[in-house]
Write a structure and sequence with these properties.
The complex is a heterodimer.
Chain A lengths: L1 E2 L4 E2 L2 H18 L4 H10 L4 H25 L5 H28 L2 H30 L11 H5 L6 H9 L5 E4 L4 E4 H18 L4 H10 L5 H24 L6 H21 L5 H8 L1 H16 L4
Antiparallel strand pairs in A: 1-2, 3-4
Helix pairs in contact in A: 1-2, 1-3, 1-11, 2-3, 3-10, 3-11, 4-5, 4-8, 4-10, 5-12, 5-13, 8-9, 9-10
Chain B lengths: L1 H47 L1 H35 L1
The chains are: A mainly alpha, B mainly alpha.
Amino acid sequence: MYFPISHSHINPVYLVVTGFVIGVLGGFFGVGGSFIAGPALRAMGLDWNFAVGTDLAHIVGKSVVAAKRHRALGNVDLRLGLIMTIGTIGGAELGAQLIQALKRAGNVNFIVSVVSITVYLSISAFMIWESWRTLAKSNGGKLRKRPGAATLKADRSAFMHVTKALQRLRIWPMIRLPTSGVTISFWIIVLVSFIGGLFSGFLGGGAGYIRMPSLVYFLGIPTHLAVGTDLFEIIISAGYGTFTHAIKGNVDILIALVMHTGAAIGAQIGAIATQYFAGPKIRLAFVPLPLIGAAIVIYTLLSGHKL
Amino acid sequence: MIARRKSEGRRTLRAFAIELTLYGLLVTGYFFGVLHFLGNWLVQLETQHIRIYASVAILLIIGQAVMLEAVTTGLLRLLRRGRSE
């Protein structure tokens, strides 16, 4: 199929299947999936700038579907999501500025690669340790298969002491989040989302791989709500990214629309599947995602090819 | 107990397969209908009015997301009703 905006020929079945896989991952883990979608589009011969911009547009659509489904399941904290957009947009701008500064210094590729490998490996290592410990502590690893509201509130984490310490910091204004069952300082929410935005601007994509764990470990949001709220937040941050990329001529919306037809059904399957897994199990299953991201960056760094 | 679970699982898989087939047919029609006609207009917009193109791009992807979500939810409901009757 010919896509006239990017002047490329891509098999639509390949786009739909790629969208479906990313949709399932996004709906289940609350991530945009740019670390897979970007290289997948690149592999089809799309220029790197179009791969990044088009991927962002597809993420917006996929996140709308997944967030709607999560909202129906009661997994979206709208108040938290809206506050987070302030920090995310600020962080994304700073991340983009850092990239520009590194571009001027002439060593952007190497530094971004090293930072991303370090971040991805650290997240994976930490989440293996934490979810493993939590699963071992909770009834010898046996958690209920279908968590209801009570289980959601009691979503335990081995990092709970740090979460509690952050929740005890009384820095005005304090924000009550009744959906998540948490009261926390506005500034801590903004700081956490700012860091997510910074990585999004610096490393590209929606940065769900850092935001979803941050919501659980730093703010104390139950995992199912963290997944849903992160998706809601991705709609806004990826929407902003899509607009800025589109005015630079980096978005082929026809490719994004075709990809999204697969993602729409995948995202629903992923979102529904979260009902059948307890929080620590979702976090443990999340571990391979940053590792895939790290593997792609290491390959790119060693071979000199962009996937 | 195990037999009931197995038959439930089989029914869910069958419903899912029917949903995927119906969805596939709808999406194929959509490709050849809507995207084909939109193509030229979007190319013109992208070359002549990039800011309008950016806004239309976001509206299109959100619109498609809402529409496809409604289609899949509707299909699931239809199949569930068909099963219970």
